[in-house]
Design a protein that fits this description.
Structural class: mainly alpha
Order of helices and strands: HHH
Length: 77
């Protein structure tokens, strides 16, 4: 369901936005809507990736080793 909103923008910003939109063959309304959709999509993708990364860090990983070598073993002291 679509719903209208009212925003206040500087007159020069509106005029420049309209010119850019006309050059792109679209409307200022559509251009603003698409940009807002892009921002929201990016935030959702970031949050999803963040949740997956945190879950992976909490889970940890198996290195395939029975035990990690001691510091002395690594540096052969």
């Amino acid at each position: 369901m679509k719903q209208n909103i009212t925003i206040s923008l500087d007159k020069d910003l509106i005029q420049t936005g309209k010119m850019i939109a006309a050059h792109r063959g679209t409307s200022l309304n559509r251009m603003l809507r698409q940009e807002l959709e892009r921002i929201i999509r990016n935030v959702k993708q970031y949050e999803s990736a963040k949740r997956k990364a945190i879950a992976a860090m909490k889970k940890g990983f198996h290195s395939g080793m029975d035990r990690y070598p001691s510091r002395d073993e690594i540096h052969e002291r």
